[in-house]
Amino acid sequence: MSRDPDALPNEPRDAPVDGESAPPGYRSLVVVVLSPLAFALVFACWTLFAVLGVELCRDLALGSVGFAVLLAMPMLAGALASLPMALLARRLGGRRVMLGCLLLTCPFLWWVSQAHHYLEFLMAGLGLGLGAGALAAGLVYVAELGPPRHAGLALGLYGAGMLGAGLSYLLLPLVSQAYGWRMAPLLYLLPVLLVAALLWLFADDADAPALPEATEDEDDEAPPVWVSPRTRVVHFACLLADWQLWRLAVTYSFFFGAFVALALWLPGHLAARYGLSLQAAALWALPFTLAVGVGQVVGGALADWRDFRSLRWWVSAFVLVCLFLLSYPPFSMRIEGVHGELTLHYAAPLWGFMGLLVAMGVAMGMGQGSLMRLIHRDHGGDMALVGGLALTLGGLFAALLPPVFVLGGEWLGVRTAGFMFLYAALVACMLVMLADHARGQRHAP
Fold first, then answer.
1. I want to staple 406 with a disulfide (CB 3.0 to 4.6 A). Which of 9, 68, 216, 342 is the partner?
2. Residues annotated as region Disordered (predicted)?
């Protein structure tokens, strides 16, 4: 069990400083409102390439593999930035790191609107991925300053910022048609700057721990304890070697990474499978993102009410069934019957496909919301480390999926290869959960 700072003597986390600290209710309200807005904007920036795929592929003469690599760039950079930014937020304050990461995305948004070569788009995508530092810092920020009795609900509302993908689905096609696709990235500059200004004006960081008062017998000349960088690295490596930090993070990373990858892949998949325009396909993909956002809030609220550790099993099993059904490509089967030949044809209609996808989205959201609440409950003192680790693993998984979806489709020759791969990944994840359960049973008194 991770060390909880609330249990330490002489270290009140929210001690007022000279009576100037914001009231707890006001602080919680600001955290719950502004942090999800920042999350949503970062996610909206990540989906730029997915919604503008037709224009980008046409102007850059991209193939499916090159486009998949372009989609993966923000997730790759985001994965590499998540853990360092989460630890930095614990040290400097979540608000400061969120502000810095939001402002950092602005020049790269401008660069996307001006770029003309594939390498430029790749580099701009990596820059947009650095906005994931705002996600990791916001997670630490909400965990520290959110309402303690409703931490799961606050974390669920924060995670619902994934609805920013839906914002791109709605707005970007309209802007692209009216003003050209190069104006679409500039659409987010003003909202990003506005949310950064609101964070600067109305949010504050967690109060620094109160220091014990000095006594007369205390040696004022005592030298400070110096810890070498090598010792810090060894200590950090020892922390990461603890399986307790990984057990929930691995499961969370599947749901997070699968959602991010599907949010980027679905518009193109729906357009190719059902003959829709990319704009229409983006609108059809919108219910999936809404379902995941609603599921996040419900899952976090349920985890506040009761310690639903078994919920991850039920959610994983339901998602597994949905992925199994979504993996079926259209097919025909000929049967030599008694009275002649029978021909069966299967092709999931669009409404049936979306119904399964929405049901799976609700379950995936519930899994993310409840798991993040369990991480907060079990590792509240190490939320920056464990939460950052979960986002890092999820980002790496999300970066891997777009190229795997494309290459799997080329290798198998079916468009549903992405769902097949997610099915296999979830089976592996559930085996890890089963091994963790058996490990806990062996070590139980």
1. 68
2. 1-20
